[in-house]
Amino acid sequence: MTEIFGVPTQALFGQLLIGLINGSFYALLSLGLAVIFGLLNIINFTHGAQYMMGAFVAWFLLNKAGMGYWWALAVAPIAVGAFGVIIERTMLKQLYKLDHLYGLLLTFGLALIIQGLFRNEYGSSGLPYSIPSQLQGGQNLGFMFLPNYRAWVIVFSLAVCLSTWFVIEKTKLGSYLRAATENPELVRAFGINVPRMITLTYGFGVGLAALAGVMAAPIYSVNPLMGADLIIVVFAVVVIGGMGSIMGSIVTGFGLGIIEGLTKVFYPEASNTVIFIIMAIVLMFRPAGLFGTPR
Fold it and tell me: Which of 34, 151, 191, 200 is the most buried if burial means most Cβ atoms within 10 Å?
């Protein structure tokens, strides 16, 4: 059996694949957090619960309405995003001029309520969600077996992340969004409804979390607590990349997923803490994050 650095090739590339899968979800979730924080200055701790809600909407659509995975990819982000819009309009809009801590406490409380409601109703054992028939099976690459669905998750999440970055950083809509956070009165002078823009931006960030939940459902199963542990890691990813940095979230999400996968091969004992160790080191030398700018 071929080895690299004393590690069997199949094991090494298998962990790299797992790292890329995890990195795909880290990137999508941290991207949603970065959009919300960068444009609204809200630390959205409900993100993990909204990720879980996306998976549950997919499960409901399949089991109650007979709508499969492809429909869920479109419907779940819209449904959960609409729920986010209600939260923003009824609660968060009252906090924009206050310290970030108030938004953090509110969204943390909402996350606990949402997770508790789903856990009371469905328990915590997890509900199965099958891989769509078009993406079942895999490809034998010689040095490893690549499941089709996992390859799809990596490619699709990267496409969504880069498309989001392009819209926010390179289009007129993105320039309006950025300007609205810096000088809302000036943007209003151009006839743009700033409150509506802020609301839709929050809904979009929530929709990204729900999209990640739909993609995660066939891999991790649908569980009320599936976002509880993940959100802690995602916050670390956002801090390392730079709070509010779109490209920082994408690069750091995928990069840290790969590092975590390699750590499981060469030093498994540190695999659960390596991201937090990197976060501590980054904060010592670049408190604003690798891609962030001091505020």
Answer: 34
Residue 191 phi, psi (nearest 5) = 85, 20
Q: How many CB atoms lie within 10 A of CB 30?
A: 31
Q: What is the mean pLDDT of residues 98-106?
A: 82
Distance CA 253, CA 284 (A): 20
CA torsion sign for 275, 49, 70, 160 is negative
Q: Count the Cβ atoms, other than its own, within 10 Å of residue 162.
A: 14
Q: How far apart are CA 28 and CA 51, in angstroms?
A: 10
Mean pLDDT to the nearest integer, 184-213: 84
Q: How far is CA 111 from the centre of its chain?
A: 15
Burial of 89 (0-12, 13-18, 19+ CB in 10 A): middle
- CB within 8 Å of 20: residues ≥ 6 apart: 154, 254, 257, 258, 261
Alpha-carbon span 209 to 251, nearest angstrom: 17
| 137 burial via Cβ count (<10 Å: 0-12, 13-18, 19+) | exposed
Q: Which of 83-92, 122-131, 192-201, 286-295 has the highest mean pLDDT?
A: 83-92
Q: What's the Cα-to-Cα distance from 191 to each of 79, 176, 202, rounded to whole Å?
A: 29, 11, 21
Average of per-residue pLDDT values in the chain: 86
pLDDT for 182 equals: 64
Amino acid at 94: Q
Q: 3-class SS at 291?
A: coil
